[in-house]
Amino acid sequence: MSKSAIALIFVGLFLAGGVISFWKQKLPKGVILVLAIGSGMCLAAGVMRL
């Protein structure tokens, strides 16, 4: 496993935690959507690098 893959997966999980936190705080759906898309892209890139 490369360090970049681990870093991307870590960032993706961090952003996913932000999505959950923002959802509980009832922030605007647009902000949550952009954060969720970024999280998904980071996780996908990290998994593809494995």
Describe, in plain words, how this protein is organized in 3D.
This protein is an all-alpha fold. It has two helices and no strands. The radius of gyration is 12 Å and the shape is elongated. The N and C termini lie close together (6 Å).
Descriptive key words:
50 residues, mainly alpha, 2 helices
Q: Please, what is the average pLDDT? A: 95
Q: End-to-end span in angstroms?
A: 6 Å
Helix segment count? 2
* Fraction of residues in helix: over 70%
User: Outline, from the CA principal axes?
Assistant: elongated
Q: Compute the CA-based radius of gyration.
A: 12 Å
Q: How many strand segments? A: 0
Quick synopsis:
The chain is mostly helical and 50 residues long. It is 86% helix and 0% strand.
Topology readout:
Elements: H1 3-24, H2 29-49
